[in-house]
Specification:
The protein is α/β, with parallel strands linked by helices and 374 residues long. The chain has helices spanning 10-21, 47-54, 92-105, 134-139, 198-208, 210-213, 260-280, 286-311, 314-326, 329-332, 342-350, 354-373; strands at residues 3-6, 26-29, 44-46, 61-65, 67-71, 77-81, 87-90, 109-111, 124-127, 146-156, 163-167, 177-181, 186-191, 217-229, 238-239, 242-244. Helix 2 (47-54) packs parallel to helix 7 and helix 8 (286-311) crosses helix 12 (354-373). The chain is globular. The model is unreliable at 367-374 (pLDDT under 50).
């Protein structure tokens, strides 16, 4: 075969399809029995991203979102009305299956229940293994930093189907708890930079957070475990005849760990580069040049912002949220793309909040040094 894709998530499927459309022979292998299973994703994707990725996307949607509720460390509530539907909660199984159908239609051979082994012969491998790190370690590829995450699907009596919630402070130190409304339940999740026991964190949140308890929990339906990438992209996505895409390359937002949008955007570029590498002898490293041209600035701003956030004490975070509210920044969020966060980050940096950022510089530098040596 000419191209072997390891991993049948969205990035792998899109890269495989794109390479095949340019006329090369592509085989994709997925270790699980079915594409789209198991589902470890929160499922929140911007409408803009869905349009770019699928075009017609309505059949994969569980719910549409037009409101965000931010609960501060002290329990103060800030509500953001996006005025129109800006995001959707997707059924990841249907989403991945749709991408699989398009890949197969383009000529990609897909083998499920199949793990990589030395018997596979290929000219180029596309590493789309997500956060598993097996291919990266086997072939000495750069590994993006990830942290453990946990999610519960919870049935509640007081169900709000168009509100995403973000809980800050002690409920998830240096990160946050999210709640995402699905078709008939809420997916509640968190992740941790430190050695906190995630099970204890989410249990404490469910049992002790007064605002969440007001939803009146009926039962916990399902528990999901995984990892999210928070470091941003690796410096070099390729080595020899292997190129990494998606979470395996770090194409997830450092602020939230969400990886569908940028994973899919960059995977399309990667598939084209791989095809041209086989047909026209283009170097795989060209992929780095192109994605950095379009997205490097976004990732740098989001990474800086995530360092700022993690450097804040609860009191500092409380003050920042209040100032953002007073300056009307929450009211302006509806005009920004939830994936391309660089513009709103730049606006905040140019506002009166700058003085707070300056005061945090020593802590931010300490956080950078700590992460470098971690």
């Amino acid at each position: 075969m000419e191209v072997l894709v390891v991993g049948g998530g969205p990035s792998g499927l899109i890269a495989a399809r794109e390479a095949s459309l340019y006329g090369v022979d592509v085989t994709l292998i997925e270790e699980d029995k079915e594409i789209g299973k198991p589902d470890h994703c929160a499922g929140l994707v911007s409408i803009n991203a869905l349009k770019k990725i699928l075009g017609n996307y309505e059949n994969v949607i569980l719910n549409k979102i037009r409101n965000v509720r931010i609960i501060s460390p002290m329990g103060n509530i800030y509500e953001v009305n996006l005025k129109e539907y800006k995001a959707a909660v997707i059924d990841r199984e249907k989403f991945d299956m749709e991408l699989m159908k398009r890949a197969e239609k383009a000529g990609v051979e897909i083998l499920t229940n199949t793990c990589f082994n030395s018997s596979f012969k290929y000219k180029i491998m596309i590493n789309a293994e997500g956060t598993k790190e097996r291919i990266c370690r086997k072939f000495g590829l750069e590994i993006p930093k990830s942290i453990p995450a946990i999610q519960y699907d919870i049935e509640v009596k007081n169900y709000e189907n168009n509100f995403v919630e973000i809980y800050l402070g002690k409920w998830s130190p240096k990160f946050f708890v999210w709640t995402v409304p699905r078709d008939d339940c809420i997916r509640v999740g968190t992740a941790s930079y430190s050695r906190y026991n995630l099970f204890n964190l989410i249990q404490k949140f469910i049992e002790k957070n007064s605002f969440f308890k007001s939803k009146e929990i009926l039962r916990i339906r399902k528990k999901l475990y995984g990892k999210i990438v928070i470091s941003g992209p690796v410096n070099n996505t390729s080595k020899n005849n292997i190129i990494s895409v998606g979470d395996a390359a770090g194409f997830a937002k450092p602020t939230t760990g969400g990886g569908i949008a940028f994973g899919c955007y960059t995977a399309k570029i990667a598939g084209k580069i791989v095809a041209h590498s086989i047909k026209n002898n283009i170097r795989l490293s060209e992929f780095d040049r192109i994605w950095k041209k379009y997205y490097s600035s976004e990732f740098k701003k989001m990474k800086f912002s995530s360092h700022v956030f993690r450097s804040m004490s609860e009191c500092e975070l409380e003050r920042i949220l209040y100032e953002m509210h007073k300056l009307g920044i929450f009211d302006e969020l509806s005009s920004y793309d939830m994936d391309f966060q660089g513009e709103i980050i730049s606006k905040i940096m140019k506002s009166k909040l700058l003085i707070h950022y300056i005061n945090l510089i020593p802590k931010i530098l300490k956080a950078y040094i700590f992460e470098y040596f971690l």
